[in-house]
């Protein structure tokens, strides 16, 4: 019987709740967000596990299979959690932790959007500020960059 959830076991639980409360945010729970929000993910998973699944016959096997990405187990867990998420007291209990995880996902998304790297013929380009203009060309490359001021001086 599973008593203490690991982050890996908590992830499928957290993804379902994020998808429900933040319309698809669970699919954005990537490696970096998991790393940064591990404490919150584990805490939320443990709370939900204790309330919804712990001690129920077969729930340990379903959780392990869901963590491994087995679709029938994921669907079974999703169905159970969606039923629980219809209860206001359950939402009130998990929402503060879910908000913290969601903030982390948004931060990771914002950071990723600002740190864009492209590689053109062996030359690297990194832009950390989306408002910056960066031009870089390697040997024997011609690169033309024109900037026009579109603001009027009225």
Work out the strand percent: 5-15%
pLDDT average, as an integer? 80
User: How are the strands ordered across the major sheet?
Assistant: 1-2
Which value, in Å, is the CA radius of gyration? 22 Å
Which residues form runs of ≥5 with pLDDT under 50? 115-125, 143-154
Describe this structure in words.
This protein has 154 residues and is mostly helical. It has one domain. 56% of the residues lie in helices and 6% in strands. It has 6 helices and 2 strands. The chain has helices at residues 7-21, 31-36, 38-53, 59-67, 71-84, 88-114; strands at residues 116-120, 123-127. A two-stranded antiparallel sheet has the order 1-2. Helix 1 crosses helix 4 (59-67), helix 3 packs antiparallel against helix 6 (88-114) and helix 4 packs across helix 5. The radius of gyration is 22 Å and the shape is globular. The N and C termini lie far apart (73 Å). 23% of the residues are buried. The model is unreliable at 115-125 and 143-154 (pLDDT under 50).
Q: What is the fold's blueprint, element by element?
A:
Layout: H1 7-21, H2 31-36, H3 38-53, H4 59-67, H5 71-84, H6 88-114, E1 116-120, E2 123-127
Antiparallel strand pairs: 1-2
Helix pairs in contact: 1-3, 1-4, 1-5, 1-6, 3-6, 4-5
Compact summary:
The protein is mainly α and 154 residues long. The chain has helices at 7-21, 31-36, 38-53, 59-67, 71-84, 88-114, and strands spanning 116-120, 123-127.
